[in-house]
Records
---
Amino acid sequence: MSLDNPSAPNDLSAFWMPFTANRQFKANPRMFVAADGMYYTTSDGRQVLDGTAGLWCCNAGHKRPKIIEAIKAQAEEMDYAPAFQMGHPKAFELAARLRDMAPSGMDHVFFTNSGSESVETALKIAIATQRARGQGTRTRLVGRERGYHGVNFGGISVGGIVNNRRHFGALLAGVDHMPHTHLPENAYTKGQPGHGAYLADELERIIALHGPETIAAVIVEPVAGSTGVILPPKGYLKRLREITKAHGILLIFDEVITGFGRLGAAFGADFFGVTPDLMCTAKGLTNGTIPMGAVLATAEVHDAFMHGPDHLIELFHGYTYSGNPIAAATGLATLEIYREEALFERAADIAPYWEDALHSLKGLPHVIDIRNLGLIGAVELAPIEGQPTARAFQAFLDCYDKGVLIRTTGDIIALSPPLIIEKSHIDQLFGTLADVLKTLH
Ligand code: PXG
C-alpha cells in the first residue's frame, strides 16, 4: 500500500492492541473520539463518564486549556533538545517543582517516559547505589505477590502477576517476593484495613533466608492498583521502612498510581507518613497527556554517585526522551493545575462521599468485597464458576453501554476517577453500577 492510498480508517487489523482481547475487540470495537472534563465521547456520539481517569492518569480531567496551551507553546518554541550532555530550562524547572512537592529529602529527579521505565530506572539505581556505597554484594530485589510494576523485564520480575510473568522466560535472577496484603478478615473495611501489619515481618524471613548483605532493595506499591486495589494494613508500610532501614536495604515506592493526589495527598508517602529512598512516578505527572515518568531519589542515593572526576558520567542510564521539552512543559502545566485548583485537597474532601457511595453497593448480587482509599474504589465480584473474569467484564460492557467507564481486573471492578469529580458524577457512577449489578448473571 502506498502512502497516497491510505487504507480505510475502519481497518483495525494492523494495530496489535496492548492488554486487550484483540479478536473480541475488533469484532465489536469500542472507540473514544473526544474527551472533555469528566466525559469521553464515543464514535457513536454518546457521552461516557470517566470512572477511571483514563488508566489512572488523567487526574485533572480531560481537555484542560492550560495543558493544551503549554503543549502548543512549547512545540512552537522548541520541539526537542538532546537529553544527554545538553539541557533545556523546562526539564530543570519541572525537576525542581517535583522536588518541592515531594516528601522532604527526596531531592533529585530522573526523568523517564512511562511507569515501566520509572521502575526499571529505580531498580537499576538501587543496585548501583549499593555498589557505589561499597555494598556490591547487594544485588537481590524483593517485590510482592500481586504487585504490578509495569511490563519490562525488571518490573515483571519483581511484580507478582502470574500471567505477566509466565510467558516470558526466566526473568531476572535473584528476585524474591513477599506475600500480598489482601486478607479475607478485612472484607468491607472502609479505608485502610486494621489487620495484617504482621505481613511486613515476612521481609525479615526473606532477609534471614538470603542474608541482608545480598539484598539491594524492596519495591512495593503503597496501594496495589492493577491487581484490584489491595490496601496496606495500618502500620504495614512503617514496619517495612523500619526493617529495610535496619538492614541497609533501599525501599522503593512505586507511586505510579498513588502519586499526584490519588489518595488526597501529593504522594502515598505523604498519605502514609513513610518516606522511601526512591519513588517511581508517571501517569498523573502529565495528566496522561504526554508520556512521561520520573524517579525521585533521596540526597543519600544521589550523592552516592557524585564521586570521582567531574568530567565522568556518574550514572550510565537514560533515555532519548528523558525530560523531553513538550513532556516537561506538559508536566509544569499539570502541576500548576493541581496547585491552583487544590485538587489533592479536593480529592481528600470528597473521599468520604465517594466511600459512602461505593459501600452502598454492599449486599447487591455477586458483590463479595468492597475496598477504598482516597479516590480509589474496588468492588470484588464472585466469579462465574469455570469462567473467571467473565462476570466483571460483562459489568464493564454493560456500564459502557449505559454511559460509564469502569475498569476490571480479574473479577474486580477498579475505580479511580479524575480528582475533579463532583457529587453528581459519583451518584451517576454508582447509580449505573448498581443497576448493572442487579441485572448481571
Ligand atoms: N507501576 C504501577 C504501580 C502501575 O500501576 C506501572 C508501573 C507501569 O506504567 P506504564 O506507564 O509503563 O504503563 C503501572 C501502570 C489498570 C492499569 O487498569 C494500570 C496500569 C497501567 C494500565 C492499566 O489497573 N498501571
---
Amino acid sequence: SLSDKLDSIFKKLKGRGLLKEEDVDVALKEVRLALLEADVNFKVVKDFIQNVRERAVGKEVLESLSPGQQVIKIVHDELCELLGATNQRIQLSPNPPTIIMMVGLQGSGKTTTSSKLARFFKKEGRRPMLVAADLKRPAAIDQLITLGKQIDIPVFYSKEIQDPVVLCESAVRQARLEGRDIVIIDTAGRLHIDEELMNELLSIKTKVNPKEVLLVADAMTGQDAVNMAKSFNEQIGIDGIILTKMDGDARGGAALSIRNVTGRPIKFIGTGEKIDMIEPFYPDRIANRILGMGDVLSLIEQAQKSFDQKEAEKLHKRIMEESFTFEDLRDQLKKLRSMGPLENLISMIPGMGKAVKDIKVEEKEFVKIEAIINSMTKAERNNHNIINGSRRKRIAMGSGTTVTDVNRLIKQYLEMKKMMKMFKGGMGKKGFKLPKF
Ligand code: GDP
Ligand code: MG
C-alpha cells in the first residue's frame, strides 16, 4: 500500500524531528502516483501536491508517527478538507415542495438515482413525487414509471406534452395539489454536452426554481469528469453532486476532481444498481479509498492519541534501574490522569495484571497524591528514606492532608517499588519492549 511504500522510503531516515524538503518530495512522488492511479485529474493532482508540500515541509513529526505516516496524515487531512469536511445533506425548502432537479450525462445514473432519492426521502417519512422530464427517449419515461411502482411513489409523466418546461410546471402544480413535499425531476441527458441540452435544462431551472440542482456523475469516468462537471456548473449552476457507480473498481478519484473544479459538495454516492444502494457521502471514507489504505489511518489516529512511547520507554528504563522516585511518580501521575487509575499503567506491563490489586489509586486521589508529592523537598522526593516523622508532619501540613495520608502514599510507593523489583527479577536480563498503548 501507499503507506508501506512511504514507510520504506523513510526507513533510511534516522531519528525524527522536522520533515525535510527532500524527504517530503520523495514521499509526494508516491502520493502523486497514487492519486493518478485513482483517476484524479492531473491538474487537480498538481495543485493538491503543491498544497500538501507547503503544509508538510518543516512540520514536526509527531512522536507516535513515523515520518511516512506523518506525510500520509497530512495528505489525508488535506484530502478530507478538499472533499468537504463533513457530510452535507440535501437542503429542504421552508415552503414545500422542495424541488430537486437531477442533471447529468446519459447513462450517468440520473433515473436510477432519482428513484433512490425518492425512496430515501420516503423512508424519512416524506411524500416525494417523481417527474419524468426526459422526453427525448420514450423508454426513459417507462423506466421511471417502473421504478416508481417498485417503491410505491407516484411518477408524474405525460406522453403528449412535448416541452419539458411545461411538463415540470404541471408536475409542481400537481404536487402542491396532492400535498407532496418533495419533487424530484429526472431530466434528459446526452452522451456529450451540447447547447440544446444545456438550454433545455436552464429553462427548466429558471421556470421551476429548484431548491437543489444535483449533478449525477459516474465515478468510473475519471479524467473526463472534470470538463463535464465544469460545463454543468458554469452553464446551469449546480448545488451538489451525486457520485454513482462507486461499487465498481473506481477508486473515487472523480470525487476529488469534480469537487475541486465545481467547489460543490458531494452529497450522496451510489453503490449499486438496486434501489436501496445509495449512501450519504463521507469524505474520510473516500479519502481512504483514494489513497488505497483502508485501516492504516485509523491505526495512525490511535497512535496519535496513545500514551507517548518515548515517555513510556523512559519510565521503563527508570523501573529497570530501580531508581523510580516520587518525582517520577508525580510526572507519571500528571500524564496518567487522562488514562484512568494508576493500576492501569502497571497492569499494562505484561505479567503485572494480577499483582496490582493492592495498589488502588482512585481518580479523585490523584489530586491528593500530587499535593503530597509537591510538598516534599527535592531531596525527599529522590530519597524516601529520609522522610522521618517530623518530615511527614510537615508534608501533611503543607499539602492539606493528614500524616495518615502521607504514610499511606509512602507505603503504596514502597509496594510499587517492591513489585517493580520483583518484576525486574522475573523478566531477568532478557528485557522487553513496553507495549504501545
Ligand atoms: P441515466 O441515463 O442518467 O438516467 O442513467 P440510468 O439511471 O438509466 O443508469 C444507467 C445505468 O447505470 C443503469 O444500468 C443503472 O442500473 C446503472 N447505475 C446507476 N447507478 C448505479 C450505481 O450506483 N452502481 C451501479 N453499479 N450501476 C448504477
Ligand atoms: Mg434516465
